[in-house]
């Protein structure tokens, strides 16, 4: 995910938003404060991967956002409930995640440490015959291709219950049209991280058109096979 960027001299600012499930309104307020412009209601949000879920979720109720574009969008809630691969999460797995979340919260009182959770395999070489959706992510995040020293590949267990109760797209249908679905054939989720030209081919035109016209609009860019997102 690229760092947050803004053009304060332009009539509208396009920021790449990185946020969390429970603080989705903070980036928009930050933009309005930092932009120092009268165009604080002409905000465009670009969400990549999980931010492709958080940005539309925020825009459902924050009318300062006039246009949203996503690339390789993922709903963290859907992914947690259904698994990295479609419908691979079992009721027992779901229950164990909620139990881990509860134990993590209890540790605030008991002081008993709870292990962090690995989001992906530690080594790409261990992916073996796992589903393509997992191997594709591991080939990006667990290799020099996309790995970063500060990307620890872990989360705290108390995140599970928050994510499992989250649905990024549940009420997107109530947002005013137009909405667009752009399908990119032959690309995987991780391919959209590398192939920037392909992933952003419609982005500039979309934001320029709908931010200037001041209408609230959505453009979802998904690959042909995207196991994370269910509409």
Helices, strands, pairings?
Elements: E1 13-16, H1 26-35, E2 43-48, H2 51-59, E3 65-71, H3 76-82, H4 91-110, E4 117-118, H5 132-141, E5 154-155, H6 159-164, E6 179-184, H7 191-194, H8 196-199, H9 203-212, E7 217-223
Parallel strand pairs: 1-2, 2-3, 3-7, 6-7
Antiparallel strand pairs: 4-5
GO molecular function, one term: hydrolase activity
Family: Belongs to the polyketide transferase af380 family.
Keywords: Hydrolase
Explain the overall architecture.
The protein is 35% helix and 15% strand. The protein has helices at residues 26-35, 51-59, 76-82, 91-110, 132-141, 159-164, 191-194, 196-199, 203-212; strands at residues 13-16, 43-48, 65-71, 117-118, 154-155, 179-184, 217-223. The relative contact order is 0.18. By secondary structure, the chain is α/β, with parallel strands linked by helices. It contains nine helices and seven strands. Strand 2 (43-48), helix 2 (51-59) and strand 3 form a beta-alpha-beta unit. Residues 1-24 and 214-231 have low confidence and may be disordered. It has two domains: 13-75 and 167-223, Alpha/Beta hydrolase fold, catalytic domain (Rossmann fold, 3-Layer(aba) Sandwich); 87-164, Arc Repressor Mutant, subunit A, CATH 1.10.10.800. Strands 1-2-3-7-6 form a five-stranded parallel β-sheet. It is globular, with a radius of gyration of 18 Å.
Keywords:
231 residues; alpha/beta; Rossmann fold; Arc Repressor Mutant, subunit A; 2 domains; five-stranded parallel beta sheet; two-stranded antiparallel sheet; 15% strand
């Amino acid at each position: 995910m690229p760092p947050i960027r803004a053009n304060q001299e332009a009539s509208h600012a396009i920021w790449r938003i990185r946020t969390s499930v429970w603080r989705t309104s903070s980036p928009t307020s930050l933009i309005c404060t930092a932009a120092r412009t009268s165009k604080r209601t002409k905000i465009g949000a670009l969400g990549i991967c999980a931010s492709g879920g958080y940005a539309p979720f925020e825009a459902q109720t924050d009318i300062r956002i006039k246009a949203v574009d996503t690339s390789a969008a993922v709903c963290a809630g859907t992914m947690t409930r259904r698994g990295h691969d479609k419908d691979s999460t079992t009721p027992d797995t779901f229950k164990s995640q909620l139990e881990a979340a509860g134990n993590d919260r209890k540790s605030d009182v008991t002081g008993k440490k709870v292990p962090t959770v690995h989001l992906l395999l530690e080594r790409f070489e261990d992916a073996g015959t796992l589903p393509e959706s997992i191997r594709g992510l591991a080939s990006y995040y667990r290799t020099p291709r996309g790995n970063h020293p500060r990307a620890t590949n872990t989360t705290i267990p108390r995140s599970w219950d928050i994510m499992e109760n989250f649905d990024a797209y549940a009420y997107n249908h109530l947002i005013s049209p137009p909405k667009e679905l752009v399908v990119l054939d032959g690309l995987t989720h991780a391919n959209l991280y590398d192939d920037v030209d392909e992933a952003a081919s419609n982005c500039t035109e979309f934001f320029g058109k709908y931010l200037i016209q001041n209408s609230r609009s959505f453009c979802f860019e998904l690959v042909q096979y995207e196991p994370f997102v269910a509409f």
